[in-house]
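TEACHING EXERCISE
Course module: macromolecular assemblies
Task: Read the component lines below, then compare them to the predicted structure of the full complex.
Student: A.B.
Group: 4
Components provided:
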Amino acid sequence: MANMADAIEQYIKTMLAESSDGVVELQRSQLAELFSCAPSQINYVLATRFQLEQGYFVETRRGGGGYVRITVLSFDPSKDWQLMFDTIGESISQARGEAIVARLMREEYVTEREAAMLKAAMGRDVLTVNLPWRDVIRAQVLKAMLIALRKFS
Amino acid sequence: MANMADAIEQYIKTMLAESSDGVVELQRSQLAELFSCAPSQINYVLATRFQLEQGYFVETRRGGGGYVRITVLSFDPSKDWQLMFDTIGESISQARGEAIVARLMREEYVTEREAAMLKAAMGRDVLTVNLPWRDVIRAQVLKAMLIALRKFS
DNA sequence: TACATTAAGGTCAAAGATGGTCAGGGGGAG
DNA sequence: CTCCCCCTGACCATCTTTGACCTTAATGTA
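Instructor-supplied answer key:
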């Protein structure tokens, strides 16, 4: 684990996996202390790896007795489908696209093979069009494939 | 070993052979340092000798803790495979692409769901780029998705 | 109650750390 | 002599890490 962000991400995900209810509560300063990093580094990890579209819900509270609470959300296609499409929007970066695929795989909505295909089709070296059009094509490809899968559920 | 590109290629292939899982992770700058060459030389080697069609899957990441990960894809001995890739070529129409997918499904190389994804990703209304580039992008997307499946075979 | 103090967490911009791209030069095989 | 392959360097894109400064909540104290 070359960088800290990944290590912190893993740490939190392990805690979530070990928790019975998929909820974990921690203190920013304490976690920063544990990894000997700036407290704002924790915010960076939360912002890049535990966003709503990735299936996590983060609540915080400041002041004495403050905390950061992270909850794993389950994906309910009938409810979250539209939200996911809105998240993809007209244009999406490779990183965010992959985050969405990672979530769908975690939720077992797509198989490992299907996830690999989705990722492959989103690569920058595959969609050889200049930005910002590449992100637009990626959004279209991703949505088209997801719609195709939707028909089977 | 007259030229450096070959030496670097051999170096990486040796590492892959020695690895138990056919995956090797390295750092571009470090490898360039080892061979006393420009970092971009590594990209040249990757681009010319470790392409998807040659059975290698390359993933990279920038920034702190960045890396280059190379995975050997399992070898598919069938002649059909190579033939299919030649058929796809650099560029392919939607109709011909769909014909290939139909055949893959008949031969049970891909599931019904996967076939639906492949077709969806090849649509002309999805790949909104003007001809002849659309056919080029379609060929790249199709090949990338099929090669991604080789990781599982 | 009002205010001060302490204890959290939040934001954002800048710097650092990698890898990517592309145009162009050099050299050898036909 | 030409073409193709190799190689480099300047400039670009992306991801990480930190630090200075800000906001909010709980608690102590007059």
